[in-house]
Design goal:
Serine Threonine Protein Phosphatase 5, Tetratricopeptide repeat, about 550 residues, mainly alpha, two-stranded antiparallel sheet
């Protein structure tokens, strides 16, 4: 249901969009699903599977394979020999202590992201160890650098921020204070609207500017200092905009009233910022960074061009989430231009050229190109669903199923092969882990389709979800709770609170983790590593108290 906002606010946005109308069509020549782009990625993947290099280089190669597989098949590449070998190597390096104590943080950060994406439960111990190592080595000013050095390094710092973001997407605790200190650091070292690699480096590089600008937006998102905008079709605002051109989009924030109704004003969904912060100063830093980017934007980067495009994609994604786009200036066709450039330099074997820098081999550059082409930040930002603890579920979908990005930043299938009732009926049997994974992903799509139908009322949707979390079938309850937790929607709280009393402890933990993300009370209401029934009951009472204080009129499930 769309939010009610003042018509003056809508007209301001519409007028601004009209001013840029002539260039809107040029922004969408390519998407990751364009045949040309997918062919480039598939060719690159064939090359990457033959790559030979150091463990650090192989880690970024494996991550590119994982993200491409998620983009096009909606599954984790379990059984991929190259990826499995890298994961095993990473785990040995963590357990042996060499990775947490690594001289720099590039490799540990990439390893953290890879382990989170592959299995955030099975590899939780290693992930926690790596995250703890980041907090231990953070400089007093909030930045990061090589071990044994005191001068900060913006490149290494931005990778820690990315690792934090991915870990939080997978419901893994990271230090809010540490993330805030990184943001403070990034803002403090901005000079003349841009950044340098280190304090002793006078050179301004477009690659470092993209990395630091993207980190400011990413951390603002992580710390909830910038609400995400929601793209709303003009037809969904009753009585307004029917005669506007099709190319115009209206961006308005999602808001709720104090009692939880969707027609409130100026109240962002969720509990607001996780930290106290100077938002005016933050806005100034973003504005200055964007102004510099408009003037300096180019694909003719003299240093680290592939590192640059990887950072550029992240900057564009998080700016789009915060502001609805990247403006109508030099950056407006950043993806299209990047695709054309990469297409012109890709070799017949699928690889991309090595760089002049000592740590810029063809394998790493090809991995960065793939991460750009598949728009990896979109995929990293998907609600997590990998959990071997909860029945072996991962992102597996129907084999060969085509995907595309739809509303709300979530990937949904473009094909529906089974209706909701058929999916639910198919759960009444013993399922293998692979079958459960397939049905879980399909059921998520079916539930969203059901909720989004114009004929489905809010009451009907809530009644349907209540029936799922109360069902006698373990699989139905598990899938329903994982879906509700992944949506991070305040309206799902009553069902998740009810699920805290589920007979299966795994479902209780899943519900608890979902409530922590919805409420943003990451460190307030916690459970021990192996909770018993008394721990779960206490946590359930606390969640019920939190929700009823937020929505006094709301009714919890009985």
């Amino acid at each position: 249901m769309p939010c009610k906002v003042p018509l003056t606010a809508i007209f301001i946005v519409v007028i601004a969009q009209c001013l840029f109308l002539t260039s809107l069509h040029a922004q969408t020549t390519y998407t990751p699903d364009s045949p040309k782009v997918e062919a480039m990625v598939q060719s690159a993947l064939e090359y990457l599977h033959t790559a030979k290099g150091s463990e650090e280089r192989n880690c970024v190669v494996a991550l590119a394979i994982v993200q491409a597989t998620k983009r096009y098949l909606a599954e984790i590449p379990n059984g991929d020999a190259f990826v499995d070998k890298v994961v095993a190597s990473v785990r040995r390096a963590v357990k042996g202590g060499s990775l947490p104590g690594h001289r720099e943080v590039y490799y540990p950060c990439l390893a953290t992201i890879l382990l989170c994406e592959m299995d955030d439960v099975a590899y939780r111990s290693e992930i926690d160890t790596l995250i703890a190592s980041f907090e231990e080595r953070q400089l007093p000013n909030g930045g990061f650098t090589y071990r044994g050095r005191k001068d900060w390094d913006t490149s290494q710092t931005q990778f820690v921020a990315l690792a934090y973001f991915v870990a939080r997407q997978h419901r893994i605790d990271v230090s809010v204070d540490s993330a805030k200190r990184i943001l403070d650091f990034m803002m403090s070292v901005q000079r003349k609207r841009t950044w340098t690699y280190s304090p002793g480096d006078p050179q301004q590089r477009i690659s470092i500017h993209a990395a630091c600008s993207g980190t400011v937006y990413l951390l603002s998102d992580l710390l909830q200092l910038q609400p995400r905008v929601k793209k709303v079709e003009k037809q969904s605002i009753a009585g307004f905009g029917d005669d506007l051109p099709d190319a115009i989009s209206i961006f308005i924030p999602e808001t709720i009233a104090a009692d939880g109704s969707p027609d409130g004003s100026a109240q962002w969904q969720g509990s607001g910022p996780l930290v106290q912060f100077d938002k005016r100063r933050l806005s100034e830093v973003k504005s200055q960074a964007n102004q510099h980017f408009e003037q300096a934007f180019t694909y003719n980067a003299k240093n680290w061009p592939f590192y640059y495009i990887y950072a550029l994609e992240r900057y564009a994604y998080f700016r789009e989430q915060a502001e609805g786009g990247v403006g109508n200036g030099a950056l407006r066709r950043w993806y299209d231009q990047g695709v054309d450039l990469l297409a012109s330099i890709q070799k017949k074997d699928g690889s991309f050229p090595e760089g002049p820098e000592p740590n810029s081999p063809s394998s790493v550059n090809t991995a960065f190109a793939v991460l750009f082409l598949v728009r990896s930040s979109e995929i990293l930002s998907l609600p997590p669903s990998s959990s071997s603890l909860a029945g072996g579920n991962n992102l597996a979908s129907l084999k060969g199923q085509r995907l595309k990005q739809l509303k709300g930043g979530k990937i949904q299938s473009t094909e529906t092969t089974q209706n909701l009732n058929e999916l639910l009926d198919s759960l009444n049997q013993d399922l293998s882990a692979e079958q459960l994974a397939t049905l879980t992903d399909s059921l998520r799509t079916a539930i969203r389709d059901y909720q989004d139908r114009p004929a489905t009322s809010r009451v009907e949707a809530q009644s349907f979800l209540r029936s799922l979390v109360k069902d006698k079938n373990y699989y139905k309850r598990l899938i329903a709770v994982k879906f509700l937790a992944g949506e991070q929607d305040l309206d799902n709280s009553p069902a998740l609170i009810y699920a805290m009393g589920d007979p299966d402890v795994r479902i209780c933990i899943e519900a608890h983790n979902g409530l922590r993300l919805i409420s943003r009370k990451i460190d307030t209401i916690t459970l021990p590593e192996k909770p018993d029934r008394s721990h779960l009951a206490t946590a359930k009472e606390k969640w019920a108290s939190w929700y009823t204080k937020l929505r006094p009129r709301a009714e919890l499930f009985e």
